[in-house]
Write a structure and sequence with these properties.
By secondary structure, the chain is an alpha/beta fold. It is 19% helix and 22% strand.
Length: 247
């Protein structure tokens, strides 16, 4: 948990999950509201490690990761000190109950089919993790939710947040694969489609931005999206900064 960000109470929709009370319907808007949205996430657990307690719902999206790779990652590495208390596949209809229409990119955004041979079969999985007995709050939140999608990051944002009239608390732009990283557009460019989509969402926009990646910390001394101009902190021993919109 980051001390310079608000600490939040675990929401009831997570608190009330147990073996005898497994939700038959995904609490979609509760998962989306106050979440961290992380496109091109891979299997990067760093935001969860540092922000659980400030945030309890994490949305990870990556079109280059398969369902079997996710299962293998969870089984072999998982989250240190946590066990799964809920795991279920989620259908497209559950995520977009009202349907949705993608907004096409402009020519300068890039070609979404550029790396079509790299894109894996779409899937969505919802998992809830619980901290192991004997570990305290210094280890992390008692529980957190992870919704993982194999999907394209811009389209997934439109489908999840815009079609459901929600917006995330934060967004993570961390080594998003621009250039040789098999991403068709530049998530860090404030003039391209992801930034335009997120920041013009009629429901609202995030209040915090995580920005960073490999290389020297000096590379990330300024936010990729200038709307988030107030520097909060860098994550300890990481080249990832947290920024928020200056009030």
């Amino acid at each position: 948990m980051i001390d310079s960000l608000p600490k939040k109470k675990m929401p009831d929709w997570i608190k009330n999950i147990c073996d005898e009370n497994q939700p038959s319907k995904i609490p979609l808007k509760k998962i989306l509201n106050d979440s961290l949205y992380y496109p091109s996430a891979g299997f990067d657990g760093v935001p969860i490690r540092y922000l659980s307690g400030n945030i309890y719902s994490f949305i990870y999206v990556d079109y280059g990761r398969s369902s079997s790779e996710l299962d293998e990652e969870i089984q072999n590495r998982g989250f240190n000190g946590y066990q799964i208390i809920l795991s279920r596949e989620i259908t497209e209809g559950e995520l977009t109950p009202n349907g949705w229409k993608p907004s096409p990119p402009s020519r300068h955004d890039g070609d979404p089919s550029k790396y079509r041979n790299w894109i894996k079969k779409p899937f969505a999985k919802w998992l809830v993790f619980q901290r192991n007995d004997g570990l305290g709050s210094e280890h992390g939140a008692e529980r957190f939710s992870l919704l993982y999608l194999c999907a394209e990051g811009v389209a997934a944002f439109q489908a999840l947040y815009i079609s459901n009239e929600c917006f995330p608390l934060g967004i993570a732009i961390i080594q998003p694969g621009t250039g040789f990283g098999l991403n068709w557009t530049d998530f860090g460019n404030p003039e391209e489609i992801l930034a335009n989509t997120v920041l013009t969402n009629p429901a609202g926009k995030p209040t915090i931005l995580l920005y960073g990646g490999i290389g020297k910390r000096d590379f990330y001394r300024e936010p990729c999206w200038p709307q988030f101009s107030e520097h909060v902190c860098f994550l300890e021993q990481k080249n990832i900064g947290i920024w928020r919109e200056r009030t």
